[in-house]
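Changelog-adjacent note: as of this version, every example in the card shows the full chain rather than a window. The one below runs 294 residues end to end.
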Amino acid sequence: MASRACAWHARLAHALRAEDAILSFNYDCLIDRALAREAPRRWRAADGYGFPIERGTDQWESPPGPGAAYKNPILLLKPHGSLNWEISDDRDEVELVEPYGPQTAHSVVPPTWEKSDVGQWPWKPVWRAARQVLAQARMLVVVGYSVPLTDQLSQSLLRADVAKLSYLVVVNPDRGARDRVVSLFASALGPQSTIHHLQDMRLFAMHLPASKSEQKQSELEARLDAAEARLDELSLESSTELDEVRDTLDRLTEAAEDFEDRFASTDSDARVLLDRLADLDARLDSVAASLDPR
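Full-length structure tokens:
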């Protein structure tokens, strides 16, 4: 997969648990990638979109790891379609593909007055699943939704199917849009309901635990700092091997400077760098032993 990613989407995906659901009116695949990376057993591309997908799922799933599969995994429902869906000409199959290509152009439903496509497969089961999860929702986080005038069907879905909310979190830099969201859910809000307004996704993500990506990045940075400190101690002495270790550490530090962008797409960069740091630690042990006069 390409290395498009967002640290805040990663935190959200990492924080979600089985039986949670995301309802996204966006076509992009940021949250899809984040789920594949941060929730490999809690979300599955094959059945995580609200309808079965048999082809192309491998590139959108990480190895699940040990443990039994969750009975009710996370759902990612995209009622307007997705730019990684390639719908067959006879509309009986969806293949997951690299997004943003011409083959996905007919896999999205624009937010206009005309919504005849949503009554067809694969959108129909997605809308049906969206109604079911909204009816059960007691906490709702609405990120970036501006309640567009032309998208009356989506508004009807949200207004009619959300029955009773205990918590509503609205994330949007536009205060007017936040107010429209609160108004949209007015009938589901009671005197005991809690409403939180947040300016942007960054502020929302700061309330969530660090993602796996950030945890490994922090580990890498700590290991680099520790190796740097050890090398500084040994640098009072001079040896050819010590100079070589310094060169290696400099290269590893340089490679880690863009670590966040590269790790956003795969765990392999982190593993490679951490393995190389382990080798560097062993070399530092060897140098320290050779320099010890005892």
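Structural remarks: Residues 261-266 have pLDDT under 50 and may be disordered.
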